[in-house]
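debug: dumping io for the single-chain case to check the tokenizer round-trip. Nothing else runs in this session.
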Amino acid sequence: MAFSSAADLAQLIQQKQVSSLELTRDYIERIERFDEALNAIVVRDFERALEGAKLADASLARGHRLGPLHGVPMTIKETFDVSGLSTTWGVPEQRDHLAPSDATVVERLRAAGAHVMGKTNVPLRLGDWQTYNDIYGTTRNPWDTERSPGGSSGGSAAALAAGLTGLEFASDIGGSIRNPSHFCGVYGHKPTYGIVPTHGHSPLGVVSAPDLNVVGPMARSAEDLELALEVVAGPDRFRSPGWRLALPPPKVRTLRDLRVAIWPMEDCVPTSAEISDRVQAVGEAVARAGAVVSDLARPDISPKDAYNTYLSLLGSTGLANLPDAYYAATQRAAAALDANDASPLAVLTRARVLDHRSWSDLDEARTRDRLRWRAFFDDWDVVICPISATTAYAHDHRPKPDRVLAVDTAMTSHYEHYFWVGLATVAYLPSTAFPSGLSRDGLPIGLQIIGPEYGDRTTIEVARLIAQELGGFRAPAGFGA
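debug: decoded output
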């Protein structure tokens, strides 16, 4: 049962084939047995989880079902507030901070019947595609513990892949749901910007919601992504007096009706041939299933300009309450840059001290691209493309400017690897990460399905349909019963 979907687990509990208490104990035993090798679940709340399971079983015995996740034990990313548990964002100075209340999504997951067993590890301030910090240490990939599980939701992905939890919830601004899903071979969904409340997922002392950032589910099946999104999506406390969310149904119910553009590679960014070839292979598979597939169709945007817009907006968000000394040091670093330096690191450095006029110009460019994407999706249902240029790479804890990653024969910097995730993020588009099988060296390759704004049900449904053709989640070796 450990590797079953959350939907199947909820059904087993509903049918009384297993109790929530039995299932929760089983996951706790697996965490105690397997997590020492992974260090994925770093904040544990087993006693309250067992009490929650007992209450779920007692409620079901009275004939009352709490919701679609009744009795399902789950974990959640460390940066979400869970009442009484620490929320640190990996910052050592915040190691003693206990959340006074639940994040909005935690409230909604609990209302649907789930209970939280613990919280999963993150990199410092969520700023990495690796997962390590000075409080909790390093999280390792269950497919190869010498490699990163991705970031910033690396603990989430590792826990799911190893069968240590029934469901996960995470966040994404720089690929933090999609990259770990790719590295660990699980599913993840980056929702359309603004449709899932982010309250309770903020650095200490910050209450505003940053631009670009979203929170969304991670799971072992597309069906679970759909279920979890239905539970949590809707207006936050600011909007709830005035509007309701009504996501459109999936555009397609079979691959025969699908119009898909595949985007295997892009000239302005290095991508390994194996990953580009996998995009092409998935396109061929859906074409054999009857879909209309094009490897030429593209939105009328400049990929390079869109990437620079993304990096600039990314670098200029999340700056609330940062110390004056940090801002002053960044100003000096930006002033010292060569005027012709257009590298990703230079773009990000300038963005951290961006003036408002420049930000407004970037927002205008982003809005024009949103309109171009909308026109593109009048003719095409989804885009399938890479998430990352490579499969999971070895742990490398050097400062990010010193890291070098080989993409086939090209040597690249850490900052060159956000192009693919930025396509969806900068335009506020939904994107569903799905496993497509293993690489030649036995590591997962995940791809993403990008759809129109508010087309979340379509991208998740396409991931479900692709799993019927190619297979879905598979468990890494060494984590069996």
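debug: round-trip ok. The chain has a mean pLDDT of 97.
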